[in-house]
Amino acid sequence: MSSQVNEQNPEHDAQHIPLALPAPVSEDNVSQLNVGSTLKLDELGPMVVNSDGTLSRIANWKEMSEIEKDRTLRVLVARNR
């Protein structure tokens, strides 16, 4: 090996300093789930079965009004059968 490879280059070392982790998230909005307990995912909205068999959810479910949610559920129930 050449001597250039073995030499320590301070500029080269400075470029490879690992980045710091982000600060921890505030625990005010953190949900804790205990092993064996249940969790309802109703606020995420219904599951949609796509034509290729994959599953997805409606992205704007939280912003929908109750009337929109009822109509969407009626269509999805018929379509997902």
Model description:
The chain has three helices and two strands. Helix content is 31%, strand content 7%. A two-stranded antiparallel sheet has the order 1-2. It has 81 residues and is mainly alpha-helical. The protein has a domain at 46-81. The protein is elongated and about 55 Å long.
Please report the total strand number as a whole number: 2
Shape: elongated
How large is the radius of gyration? 25 Å
What is the makeup of the main sheet? 2 strands, antiparallel
Strand order of the largest sheet: 1-2
Order of helices and strands: HHEEH
Average of per-residue pLDDT values: 79
Percent of residues in beta strands: 5-15%
Quote the distance from N terminus to C terminus. 67 Å
Secondary structure class reads mainly alpha
Which residues sit in consecutive blocks of at least 5 with pLDDT less than 50? none
Total helical segments: 3
The percent range for helix content is 25-40%
Describe the structure concisely for a colleague.
The protein contains three helices and two strands, in the order H-H-E-E-H. It has 81 residues and is mainly α.
What are the defining features of this structure?
single chain; 81 residues; mainly alpha; 2 strands
Write the layout of secondary structure elements.
Layout: H1 3-6, H2 10-15, E1 47-49, E2 55-57, H3 66-80
Antiparallel strand pairs: 1-2
